[in-house]
Amino acid sequence: MPPEAGPSAFFSGCSCRALTMTATEPPTRTEKDSLGPKEVPQSAYYGVQALRAKENFPVSGLSLPPELVRAYALIKLACCEANERLGVLDAERARAIAQAAREVADGRFADQFIVDVFQAGAGTSTNMNVNEVLANRALEILGKPKGDYAYLSPNDHVNRGQSTNDTFPTALNLSSLFALGEVESALVRLVQALETKAKEFEGLPKAGRTHLQDAMPVTLGSEFQAYASTLRRVLEALPHVKEDLGEVALGGSAVGSGINTKVGFRNLSVERLSALAKVPLRAARDPFETMQSRRAASEASAWLRSAAVELTRIANDLRLLTSGPATGLDEIRLPEVQPGSSIMPGKVNPSMVECLNQVCFHVIGSDLATSLASQAGQFEINVMMPVMAFEVLFSCRLLSNFLPVFAERCVAGIRPNPQRMEHYLLSSHALATVLTPRLGYLKVAEVIKKAAASGMNPRDYLVKEGILSAQEAEEFLGLKALIAMARPVA
After folding, report:
1. What is the structure's pLDDT at 234?
2. Contact by Cβ (8 Å): 141, 99
3. Among the four 137, 170, 243, 377, which has the fewest Cβ within 10 Å?
4. 451 vs 3: which has the higher pLDDT
5. pLDDT for the residue 236
6. Which of 45, 70, 224, 249 is nearest to 147 (CA)?
7. Which helix (H) or strand (E) holds 367?
8. E strand or H helix at 11, and its extent?
9. Distance (Å, rounded) from C-alpha 332 to C-alpha 314?
């Protein structure tokens, strides 16, 4: 490099002022909570309590799930409207808080929710992060400076008649309802894709397998229809889960009694929340129970686990059915979506199915974490709610993101390999089972062993030994007979 191109040449065009400038800290404002004053970035809508939580819990780097933030914003909006109607919040402040809550519910200010998903117990940090963002945005709407909590307070106005103890479990339930709706839609798409394949494959007989050993024939279509049917059964269990999630703790305040709320607040706030969220919600029939127990969220997690168990079982079958191709079953071919090896040219792996397995393993593990958190409540509150919210909502996100992709990029492109299926089917010694009513169990077992020893399939062996004529062999073990065997007996 010539001298003129070196560092001195690079800096030669810079002014001395630019070289000697020092970075200045962004302007801050002083906020005060019960622990004392603290400097908060002037541009921030969050406040002192959210900032303390961010500094205390630099755990995962994962921010609050958007479904949880949306649910919380709608809760604050519903409570604001209820408080204004009951005369405990004036119209000016209520108008500003309501506008701020609507903006947050619509996805604005997402970067202002700075609390880690792993945080102090119960979700107080989450509640205060929401309260502070709404308070400071409301102040801005009113032409007041951020942090002017003497005029509009996160605690006294945004959080009026509320506690973390009733708002967080309500947000947990409501956000779970939002997220489960996405999973439901994704699962329906996968079921439809499987049912399409079931119809396409209904005339393709193949060897059934039990204990991973040859069994009586089925059709490829019946296998795929069974996959679809089991997922439909999973879907049929979801309405009960949703119904339980619809009973919320809102209005219970600190312990369920509704302390510091005005008469009528509980029912009015839940009624408004149901209308705003467009989901059926109802006030708790036992307000103390809904403060203590996180049973509904645990049931939601269990439903996700149940779906994942069935999905991973189906994924395992698909991996076996496509195994090989030369040394495995190779009865179906999955779409080729990417090269499968950095060293073996031409190798293609069942990548989409492998990803589905991994997603399901995570969901199953998340349910264990949720179960442990659910049983960890003591007396009037369960302080492990933040991790429950993360696990349930993250599991929902994994499934709702990937299942439509799996349906489109894997299931829709599955092709059968009829020649391979026919080869295995005709080679299966289990076919001789159909002759049991005619020859008896022990005689058929003898035939199967002798056919295996001779290297012949049972059909050819039976004809060779004169046990069946060629016509009888066709009648009992021909293609039409095989298809008939694969159909359920009425």
Report:
1. 98
2. yes
3. 243
4. 451
5. 98
6. 45
7. helix 351-374
8. helix 7-12
9. 14
- Which residue would you say has higher pLDDT here, 23 or 82? 82
Residue spans of the domains in the chain: they are: 40-160, 169-257+287-337+346-416, 428-486
Residues 471 and 483: their CA atoms lie apart, in Å, by 17
Peptide bond into 205 cis (omega under 30): no
Looking at residue 237, what is its pLDDT? Answer: 98
Distance, in Å, from the CA atom of 172 to the CA atom of 245, rounded to the nearest integer, reads: 9
CB atoms within 10 A of CB 121: 15
Q: Among 312, 230, 246, which Cα is nearest to 285's?
A: 246
Count of alpha carbons within 13 Å of 437, Cβ hemisphere only? 2
- The SS3 call for residue 8 is helix
Distance CA 419, CA 336 (A): 20
- The arrangement of secondary structure in 40-160, i.e. its CATH architecture, is Orthogonal Bundle (1.10)
* pLDDT for the residue numbered 207: 93
Q: Looking at beta carbons, which pairs linking 38-44 to residues 24 or more positions away fall under 8 Å? A: 40/147, 42/146, 44/112, 44/136, 44/146
Provide the pLDDT for residue 368: 98
207-261 pLDDT per residue, tens: 999 999 999 899 999 999 999 999 999 999 999 999 999 999 999 999 999 999 9
40-160 and 428-486 share one CATH topology? no
Helices (H) and strands (E) in the chain, counts: 20, 8
In CATH, what class is 169-257+287-337+346-416? Answer: mainly alpha
| Residues annotated catalytic, as ranges | 341
Q: What percent of the chain has pLDDT over 70?
A: 94
